[in-house]
Each structure stands twice: as C-alpha cells, then as structure tokens.
Amino acid sequence: MRLTWSDVTPKPLWLTRRQLMAGGGALLATPALAKIEAAKSPYSTDEAPNSFEDITTYNNFYEFGTGKGDPAEYAGALTVDPWSIVIDGMVDRPGTYDLADVVKGQPLEERIYRFRCVEAWSMVIPWIGFQLSGLLDRVGVQPGAKFVAFETLVRPEEMPGVASPFIDWPYREGLRLDEAMHPLTILATGLYGEAMPRQNGAPIRLVVPWKYGFKSIKSIVRISLVDTMPPTTWNMLQPSEYGFYSNVNPKVDHPRWSQASERRIGAGLFGGRQDTLMFNGYEAEVASLYAGQDLAADF
Ligand code: MTE
Fold first, then answer.
1. For residues 264 and 272, is the Cβ–Cβ distance under 8 A?
2. Which of 22, 28, 34, 197 is the most exposed place for a label (fewest CB within 10 A)?
3. Are 215 and 208 in contact (CB under 8 A)?
C-alpha cells in the first residue's frame, strides 16, 4: 500500500487516512508529538480547512529553495530528531532544551486558523500546537525584556537553499513581548492531527494568525528574550516593503501590490478571491495591542 498526499482530502478522509496509518505499521511512523485527541480550541475559525495536499505542497521555506514546490521536494532530508532549542537572553532559566522538554506540560490544542501570506494568498490550516506564553512563563521572562527573537536552523548539508546568499541566514523573526504572550500566538508541532510535515517547519514553528505568514518562522532552534527590537529577515532584505509588525492590513498596501484582497488557495479559479480582513479577521482579539499606534507607519 502506498499513500500519496493526493489521496488525502479534508476532514472526512482524514480519519480514514489515520486508520490506514494505524494499520500500515512501519510504512508511516506514528507521530511522536501530535495527538488527534488535542482539544479543539475556541479560537478556531469555522471556515473549512484547506486540504492536506494544499497545505503541504504550496510552501515558502527558502532554506529549501524559492519555488513553492521546493520545500515538499527537498525538506524530506531534514533530520528533526534529535532537536533542541536554545532559550536565552532575559530569562530566569536559560538553556538548551530538548524538544520533548519544550513541549512538556503544554496543553496541545487544535487551532484552525486563517493564514494570510504577504503575497496575497491565503489558506485555512488546522494546526496542532500550544500557546507560546506557556513556554515563556515556564522559562521565566525577566522584567525589562520587551521583544522575543527567533531563529531557524541552518544546516547546509540538509538545506540546499542556504547555499544562496540572498538571505543572511539564519532566517530570523521577532515579536513584541505582548504579541508573543497573546493567547492566539502558538508554537505548532503538527497539523491535521499529525506531527508537523518538514516542509511546514518541523518539528516546531511559530504561528501568529493576525500577521503575514512570513512572521511564522519555521524549524526554530533559538528563542531569545531581548530589550531592543530584533532584526528580522524580510525587514533586513527590504525594509521599505516589510516592516517589523507585518500585521495583516487591507488598508496598507505593499509598495508593489494591493493587500485589499487575497486568493484562497484551493478554492478554484473563479471562486477564490475574497476581501482581506483587518488583522486577518482577528481584530476583536488583537486590535487593542496597537491602540494609539499609526499602523501605516508601523507596518
Ligand atoms: N520560515 C523559515 N525558516 N524560512 C522561510 O522561508 N517562509 C515564511 C514562513 N516561515 C519561511 C519561514 C513565509 S514567507 C510564509 S508565507 C510561511 O512560512 C509559509 O508557511 P507554510 O509553508 O507552512 O504555509
């Protein structure tokens, strides 16, 4: 029996596929972290998730190349076990933590989130993850810390894309501390009830649903608590086009294209265009974080 991703469509068949996996034994290893029993979060959207195939074949993960199909083609070689994360800077308990220790005790939830890329496409993704705030509370954020900086693994022998100097590796991202502590902000370890596919940022990636997708850094190996705004990859590359905040905002266009609408991947040629929502539809939850800020200046 050989399954390909194209055998997989949203929810109804998802269970079937898992039953096949259970019976398939060695063919597909049992995911170590993701649990299908993860509680469904009240933060989930009711919108229908994209198919597993859409989510795992149309990706941005420049460490594996710049093409949308490159991550699915090349990320299979990435070793994700063992995996450890350095947590450092202004924390009470800095250290190098094994992934198992990072996720220990954190309640896993299924979070079905809208995901809006700065390139003006979108998806709905059923992540499995836990709140970043839970981890930050565990390591103890010191007074004076104002931002959280993240870095992705750089492993040239498994990541063909890092041979290209166009990005100053490692891929870097950052959040203000209040954004990082917000309950919508999660570290995701899986999707569709399975351990995170490599092309989506295995074994652990950030998801910040009210920000453009590039803020959701993949395959994280370092989390640092700092007191100044950290450098971020897209801002370093092109500061006039990509700001630190990168909140989804239909009223603030990218200098080269409109952000007023988006193409929902998988919705077909004619059904797929829809208006982009302020903060990607999470305005009620997050607008207060930016009270008094000029979002055209702080883009
Ligand atoms: N993280 C790393 N390390 N490298 C990347 O190239 N691309 C970002 C983000 N995280 C990227 C990354 C961009 S541009 C997007 S849109 C999302 O990942 C895509 O996530 P997805 O492939 O899971 O949909």
1. yes
2. 22
3. yes
Which residues form ligand 1's pocket by a CB distance below 6 Å?
A: 59-63, 117, 152, 171, 200-201, 213-214, 216-219
How far does Cα 1 stand from its chain's mean position?
32
Q: What is the pLDDT of residues 122-142, one digit of tens each?
A: 999 999 999 999 999 999 999
Q: Which residues pair with 194 in a beta bridge?
A: 191
Question: What is the pTM for the complete model shown?
Answer: 0.89
Q: How far is CA 161 from CA 67, 74, 191, in A?
A: 10, 9, 24
CA 171/CA 233 separation, integer angstroms:
6
Residue 183: what are its φ and ψ, rounded to 5°? -60, -20
Domain definitions of the chain by residue range:
11-288
The residue nearest atom 16 of ligand 1, judged by CA position, is 213
Please, what CATH class does the domain formed by 11-288 belong to?
alpha beta
pLDDT one-digit tens code per residue, 208-250:
999 999 999 999 999 999 999 999 999 999 999 999 999 999 9
**What is the best residue among 53, 214, 219, 235 to mutate for testing ligand 1's pocket, by most ligand atoms within 8 Å of CB?**
214
